[in-house]
Amino acid sequence: MPSLYRPESRSYPYDASIRNLRKACARRKELGAYPRPWRSKEEGLMIRRQVLLWFTCVDKNRPSGRAWARALGVSHTWLQKLVREFTADPSKVRRLQAYGYPTSAQLSRAQEYTRQMKERGELRLSRREKWARFFERYPEAQELYPKAGSASAPGGESKA
């Protein structure tokens, strides 16, 4: 089907899409619409240091990656991603080792800082927290979403 527009007002599809993309990026930057981080930079650094400690451990009783990630409160896929970063770039490993061994007190202090940032609204919310805020605002919706109200998120296990 021929175009409804005059030939001189048309542009090549690639040029038009690039122009639209630039407009969208400028608008997004203007609005500050980039996603907020999940945790504070301090906690992210502490988790990286803990993962490096786990990765460089040569003990036979070293826990599995899933168990270590669960103990840190992160996903095992992120743990695997960090391990791939460490193997690909040894300079990252040296920079992290320069901090010394991480302690549980440092990790708890970083987690507390993350909690404070989350209360101030500077971080993303988990699905559980989003539903909790939703039900605080609209308590009548719990009848419509009983699983989400009783557990953590839609499709979650219910309290028994």
Query: What is the count of helical runs?
Result: 8
Average pLDDT confidence is: 84
What share of the residues lie within helices?
Answer: 55-70%
> First CA to last CA: what distance?
61 Å
Structural class: mainly alpha
General shape: extended
Radius of gyration: 23 Å
What is the beta-strand fraction?
A: under 5%
Order of helices and strands: HHHHHHHH
Number of strands: 0
Q: pLDDT below 50 for ≥5 consecutive residues: which ranges?
A: 152-160
Main β-sheet description: none
Task: Summarize the structure in words.
The chain is mostly helical and 160 residues long. Among the domains are: 41-119, no CATH class; 129-160, no CATH class. It is 59% helix and 0% strand. It is built from eight helices and no strands. 11% of the residues are buried.
Tags for this model:
single chain; mainly alpha; 59% helix
Q: How would you summarize this macromolecular structure in one to three sentences?
A:
This protein is an all-alpha fold. It has helices at 13-31, 41-55, 65-72, 76-88, 90-97, 104-119, 127-137, 146-150. The chain contains eight helices and no strands.
Can you lay out the helices and strands and say which pair or pack?
Blueprint: H1 13-31, H2 41-55, H3 65-72, H4 76-88, H5 90-97, H6 104-119, H7 127-137, H8 146-150
Helix pairs in contact: 2-3, 2-4, 2-6, 3-4, 4-5
